[in-house]
Design a protein that fits this description.
- This protein starts with 6 loop residues before the first strand and ends with a helix.
- The chain has one domain: 3-Layer(aba) Sandwich (Rossmann fold).
- The protein is an alpha/beta fold.
- The longest helix has 15 residues.
- It has eight helices and twelve strands.
- Helix 3 crosses helix 4, helix 3 runs parallel beside helix 5 and helix 5 packs parallel to helix 6.
- The mean pLDDT is 88.
Length: 252
């Protein structure tokens, strides 16, 4: 196993349509660490998540992203996924005609280089679903078609558990969830968090962090980290909001 950090972001600048969004970001995540990135709407959080997984609409204008010590600038999304990177989407897309189990079969084959039969994958998925408390019929539904918000997010956690990535980036997985769905999703994430994996949890609010205790919390405003600290930083945001940080980010 490499001694390099799982993820090292160095002086990252990102733009879209010639508008600067991420403005000099430094962030390091080691194996076994859970980081929370908190910030208001429009701060660039989801842009960062998409850049990490290779979304073509965003341009890295300066800096670099190292994954396990390798510069991944030229890697496409498929290569990043196969190497063990995972993105849990804020708004998971529907894919009509593709069942959850078939989608996971294709994704896991890409991740491991092993061609699984439908039966092999079904058995694996059923074991994981049982562990996560999901109904078995879930596997045969078309991916996110007709899913409630909570079901879509549970499906993201199912993918996370089946694919067993080394680095998971969860982009506002808590958005749109009631308290029961939030608890289920959070418990699912905790089940797959191990000493070999790193997590970046992107969120507006503390409520996800009531169930998952991060090692480090970063306040992200106007495209850069303004402050980093422990879980108490998230509690402070819950009470005070982001106004002071907005003012700091706007200061010359």
């Amino acid at each position: 196993m490499s001694d390099a950090p799982l993820l090292a972001i160095e002086n990252l600048h990102v733009s879209a349509d010639d508008v600067a969004i991420v403005k000099g970001l430094d962030l390091t995540i080691n194996r076994g660490e859970i980081h929370a990135l908190m910030g208001p709407n429009g701060s660039g959080k989801s842009t960062l998540a998409n850049v990490l997984l290779g979304h073509p609409d965003y341009v890295v204008t300066q800096g670099r992203v190292l994954y396990k010590g390798e510069d991944i600038a030229e890697w496409g999304p498929d290569q990043r996924g196969a190497a063990g990177m995972f993105l849990g989407f804020q708004y998971p897309e529907e894919i009509p005609g593709v069942t959850v189990v078939n989608f996971l079969r294709a994704a896991l084959s890409n991740r491991t280089g092993t061609e699984y039969t439908i039966l092999e994958l079904r058995l694996k998925v059923m074991d994981v679903m049982k562990e996560l408390g999901l109904d078995g019929s879930f596997a045969d539904r078309y991916l996110n078609e007709g899913f409630s918000g909570g079901e879509r997010k549970r499906n993201e956690v199912l993918q996370l558990a089946v694919l067993e990535p080394d680095l998971a980036v969860l982009d506002e997985t808590d958005s749109g969830l009631d308290i029961d769905a939030l608890r289920t999703v959070a418990e699912g994430v905790k089940k797959v968090a191990t000493a070999d994996r790193g997590f970046l949890i992107i969120t507006h609010y503390q409520r996800m962090l009531d169930y998952i205790t991060p090692d480090i919390v970063h306040i992200f405003v106007d495209g850069r980290i303004i402050e980093s600290g422990g879980p108490e930083l998230a509690a402070r945001i819950e009470g005070d909001g982001y106004d002071n940080y907005r003012a700091e980010a706007a200061a010359p």
